[in-house]
Amino acid sequence: MNIPGSTPSDGGSRNMILLVGAPFTGKSTAAATFPNPVFLDFDHKAPVNTTTVPFWNAEFCDKLAPRKNPNHTPNRKDALLNYFRAHVITADASRRIPYSATLILDSMTALEEAIHRQIQQDGIPIGKGGQPDGFHLWKLKIDYLNDFFAIAQAWPGTFICIMHETPEYGESGATTGRIKPLLSGQYADKIGSKFTGMYRQRVIVEAGKPPQYVWDVLPTRVFDSNNTLGIKQPTILASYESMMKHSTISAAVPAVV
Question: Model-level pTM greater than 0.85?
Answer without folding.
Answer: yes
